[in-house]
Write a structure and sequence with these properties.
This protein is α/β, with parallel strands linked by helices. The chain has one domain: Ribonuclease Z/Hydroxyacylglutathione hydrolase-like (Metallo-beta-lactamase, Chain A), CATH 3.60.15. Helix content is about 20%, strand content about 25%. The protein has 7 helices and 14 strands. The protein has helices at about 45-50, 70, 75-85, 100-115, 180-185, 210-220, 235-240; strands at about 5-15, 25-30, 35-40, 60-65, 95-100, 125-130, 135-140, 140-150, 155-160, 165-170, 190-195, 225, 250, 255-260. The strands form 2 sheets. It has a 7-stranded mixed β-sheet with strand order 6-5-4-3-2-1-14. Strands 7-8-9-10-11-12-13 form a 7-stranded mixed β-sheet. Strand 7 (about 135-140) and strand 8 form a beta hairpin. The longest helix is centred in the middle third of the chain and has 12 residues, at about 100-115.
């Protein structure tokens, strides 16, 4: 009998733009079959990948939820390191997937860094998704869905589904919106930002009770709160989330793993 293939999820970074020894900036590693996917590339992602026993050369896909530096700043060092040294440079293709405007965003990076981040057209595939509606695409080893969310014009939430049916949804940065409820519907694992405590709500971000409300409306099987600013360390995040959500709940820590 063929062993059931798992979808493995590792929280690489549960923090923000604020430097922290405990929490790296936003990033998640997903492993499905031979595919190793990274969602968001905040500073420190490559070091966290090594802690997760994954080299950057093994990464097949990068998804960016939006272009803020705490979600994208490691992209340039990642591409630069993919070129050097020559004896260990990238051999397998890399696909970068992001929302509206990524081609222009990447062109801007290329105008600054030039050949330092040029890994060659045969190795780099850029996919710019349409933020006007739900998008569905199939890749070798997983299916991808995206929905625009309320943060930046290019902001997307992602849903990755493995061949055996397990699904992970990543909110990215967002405020409350129906699109996030729709894409998270019945997900096995919902990784949702909870940037600030309830009494410090900021526009464009969620709080524990608001993230819990979305998880409850979506009927997710497990909620993982992440993207904690330092203010979250001084309050009972779980208690705040429990105002609206009674299901399985985890507060993210760097290098925390899940098997689906």
């Amino acid at each position: 009998m063929t062993q059931k293939q798992h979808l493995k999820v590792t929280i690489l970074g549960s923090g923000t733009c604020v430097p922290s020894l405990e929490r790296s900036s936003c990033s998640v590693l997903l492993e499905s079959g031979n595919q190793k996917m990274v969602i968001d590339m905040g500073p420190g992602t490559m070091r966290r990948l090594l802690r997760a026993e994954t080299t950057m050369l093994q990464v097949s896909h990068i998804f960016l939820s939006h272009f803020h530096p705490d979600h994208s700043a490691e992209l340039v060092p990642f591409l630069f390191a993919s070129k050097y040294p020559v004896h260990s440079r990238r051999q397998a293709p890399l696909t970068i997937i992001a929302g509206n405007g990524f081609s222009d965003f990447f062109s801007g990076l290329s105008s600054v860094y030039g050949e330092w981040i040029d890994i060659g057209p045969d190795l780099l595939n850029i996919v710019e998704l349409d933020n006007s509606a739900r998008q569905k695409r199939s890749f070798d080893g997983f299916a991808l869905e995206s929905m625009p969310v309320k943060h930046r014009p290019e902001s997307l939430a992602y849903r990755i589904t493995a061949p055996h049916g397990a699904s992970v949804v990543y909110s990215g940065d967002t405020d409350v919106c129906d699109n996030l409820v729709d894409i998270a519907k019945d997900a096995d694992l919902f990784i949702c930002e909870s940037a600030f405590p309830d009494d410090l709500k900021k526009e464009g971000h969620l709080t524990p009770s608001r993230a819990g409300e979305i998880a409850a409306r979506s009927n997710v099987r497990k909620l993982v709160l992440t993207h904690f600013y330092p203010e979250c360390e001084t309050v009972d995040i779980e208690k705040e989330c429990r105002k609206t959500y009674s299901g399985p709940l985890v507060l993210a820590q760097d290098l925390m793993e899940f098997q689906l």
